[in-house]
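Entry 14. Structure prediction run on the chain below.
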Amino acid sequence: MDMNPHHRRKFSLFLVFIASLQVLVFSFSDLKAEENPHHSDQSLSQKDRALLALARKEYENAIPDFVQLVQKEGADSYLLRGFVKAFKGVDRLDEADQILLHLEKKYPNSSEVKFAQGLSALYQGKNDTAESLFDESLKINSQNALAWNAWSTLLADRGSYDAAVQKNWEAIRINPEESLFFDNLRFIYKQMKHPDLFVDKYNEQVEKGELEVALGFAKVLTRELRQEGFRLYSQNKIDLAIEPFLKMEKIYNEVHYVSGLVPALFSLGLLYEEKGDIKTSQLYFQRVLSLNPQHLQARDKIK
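Output returned:
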């Protein structure tokens, strides 16, 4: 039996959502893989299990794993960041500080431990202490990108935006694949009341051919556009919902990001199909197959 229009719309929205999920990008600082509720946590490594519990905000479950891990692998900024965040989640940073003091004795010249101590101080509102610790961390190792990023957050909260941006760019320079740094830069520009600067910097990177850095900007921008498209679709504004996806298509083409372009094109095919523009929808499905001949959903849509 045919679905009624209401159910057809809900089904189509579901397909657009699934297609777009393929390009959601998670920072390893939060979680490397998408959570699967049917997957046994016991099959994960201890590190991945801790990160998964942190992402789920199951802080009490995360803490024992993080404590063991930092004692075994103390000199790891990402691990220590998760450790501090877990203790922050249960308001027990004083305990975290004691463990970090023991780690400092074990690793007396560790940029990573200094960073973690600074992050804990930052979370407790001890900004002067945090800044001093970030400075110490970076004097030991100027390539500690997380320390640059955390320091930029502190400076932005203080209203020292130029310095915050400069330190954030140091983090991006060191690791342009880390989405956390681009999210932070986006937030700083919003704090400055100049959100368009983020788009301007993206365009600058594209024009300079710095596509690795431009991709970091692109992932933030396309995530926001995707959310806007879903919001407009949920309001039955099909024509308006198409516009954000067209902008996503343009951005993905500019940075040559095929993994993002394919689901964006498929989503546009679905939206044009629902609009009743079958000719345009077919063109988008064909473009999907030209990039990914194994795309089963697009194959099924070709008439």
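The domain at 28-160 is CATH 1.25.40.10 (Serine Threonine Protein Phosphatase 5, Tetratricopeptide repeat).
Filed with the rest of this week's runs.
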